[in-house]
């Protein structure tokens, strides 16, 4: 499933993110890539170990985790640590697939879904489209600042060269509690149906209760605790 979520960051959060990002220290982005991706990754990664970096990371993480549509779509079990990247001066991140597992020990997670939260307005840089190849289709994303693109980590994808300006984004990965993508889509549809039904039916009505029971039992059937 390829999905764009609008307004994950509001205007105030976006202004704060822009202010904080301007003070960060940047390092070679290849340091956070796998062996194959390292050869095509030509961008910079923010050092989030500072007080300013931690403040930005925490603010972005809270906004992402709180978004109801992301929660309904991804059924998150765990999130990876966030990365903030900057691409400029012809930089790019060539065609690659994300590592199937990230982290070590208890922090190790399976990457089911990837996301990119745009922090730069699309008119402030040239190029830099996120290009995702999935199920015979190619999606191009260059959204408004504050919007998030969610897509399967199984997909080949790339960031096209940035020919002018700066492209700053936050990226991360999700291990879903529902491992199967088709099952996640069914649950997403049912959650949308429940939200619609809640506008016309009492939550104690037989229709609403039956749907809620079905959602809960499917999550028991397909889910991982």
Automatic annotation (TrEMBL):
An annotated GO BP: intracellular iron ion homeostasis
Q: Which organism is it from?
A: Hyphomonas chukchiensis
Key words, A-Z: Dioxygenase, Iron, Metal-binding, Oxidoreductase, Vitamin C
Q: Which terms in the Gene Ontology molecular function aspect does this entry carry?
A: 2-oxoglutarate-dependent dioxygenase activity; iron ion binding; L-ascorbic acid binding
Which Pfam families would you find in this protein's record? 2OG-FeII_Oxy_3
Q: Which NCBIfam families match?
A: PRK05467.1-3, PRK05467.1-4
Residues in a coiled coil are none
**Protein name according to UniProt:** Fe2OG dioxygenase domain-containing protein
**Residues reported in the UniProt entry to bind Fe cation:** 96, 98, 157
Q: How is the cofactor bound?
A: Binds 1 Fe(2+) ion per subunit.
Residues given in the record as 2-oxoglutarate binding sites: 167
Cofactor(s) recorded in Swiss-Prot or TrEMBL: Fe(2+); L-ascorbate
**Top-level taxon:** Bacteria
Which residue ranges does the record assign to the Fe2OG dioxygenase domain?
78-176
Keyword Transcription regulation attributed: no
């Amino acid at each position: 499933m390829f999905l764009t979520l609008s307004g994950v960051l509001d205007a105030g959060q976006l202004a704060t993110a822009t202010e904080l990002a301007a003070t960060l220290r940047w390092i070679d982005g290849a340091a956070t890539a796998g062996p194959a991706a390292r050869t095509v990754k030509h961008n910079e990664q923010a050092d989030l170990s500072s007080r300013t970096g931690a403040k930005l990371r925490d603010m972005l993480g809270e906004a992402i985790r709180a978004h109801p549509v992301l929660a309904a779509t991804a059924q998150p079990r765990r999130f990876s640590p966030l990365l903030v990247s900057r691409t400029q001066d012809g930089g790019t991140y060539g065609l690659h697939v994300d590592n199937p597992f990230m982290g070590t020990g208890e922090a190790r997670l399976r990457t089911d879904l990837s996301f990119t939260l745009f922090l730069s307005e699309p008119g402030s840089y040239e190029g830099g489209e996120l290009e995702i190849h999935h199920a015979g289709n190619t999606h191009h994303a260059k959204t408004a600042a504050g919007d998030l693109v969610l897509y399967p980590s199984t997909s080949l994808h790339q960031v096209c060269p940035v020919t002018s300006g700066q492209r700053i984004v936050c990226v991360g990965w999700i291990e879903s509690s529902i491992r199967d993508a088709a099952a996640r889509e069914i649950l997403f549809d049912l959650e949308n149906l429940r939200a619609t039904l809640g506008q016309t039916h009492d939550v104690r009505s037989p229709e609403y209760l039956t749907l809620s029971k079905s959602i809960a039992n499917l999550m028991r059937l397909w889910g991982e605790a």
